Amino acid sequence: MPTLASIFLLMIATVLLGIVPGPDMFYILARSTGQGRSAGLISCIGIAVGGVLQTTALALGLSGLFLAVPVAYQIVKYAGAVYLVYLGVRTILNREDPLTGAPSEKAGLVRIFLQGTFTTLLNPKVAFFYLAFLPQFVNQAQGHVSLQLLLLGLIFNITGLAVDSTIALLASLLGLWLKGHKKAARLLQWFSGGILVGLGVRLAFARQE
Predict the structure, then answer these.
(1) Is 209 part of a structural domain of the chain?
(2) Can you give the pTM of this predicted structure?
């Protein structure tokens, strides 16, 4: 199993990576400022679940498929890009009054959770990141590499969830303040949708590394 020193270093690295602006952070900011604390936290959970699924794929050797079959990478990449752009356009075109909230919060939160999960799953660059990052903390002498990768992936995503949740809570306070004004709320809706569209375009033009 991984040494305690390796686990500690992994957690420190995860915190540092979590506070660096990236696609996940921008997605969480969009949901938190646009739809409030609950939406932001559920987005964080969805992203974490997607990350756990990605690291499980890594442990099972499935992430190597992207290296062996470049077409698979391209298919998943463009599917993820289209999905993000769709979410962004839908957010921008939403005619619901941003000050009143959704009529069915429970259904909305379930949808947001799934969106967060699929946003991570449909980003092959996340798989490449795990493929390059997590093996550095594996203790080869102990064997059971797949089990170690599963454990390291779980630790990474739990730590990342704590960091992301903090960001979501702070962003939701900003969104709550902005929603005190109807015009600001509408601008916030466009801002949130624009971020999602931008992430989709960014993913579409990302190179395989």
Answers:
(1) no
(2) 0.71
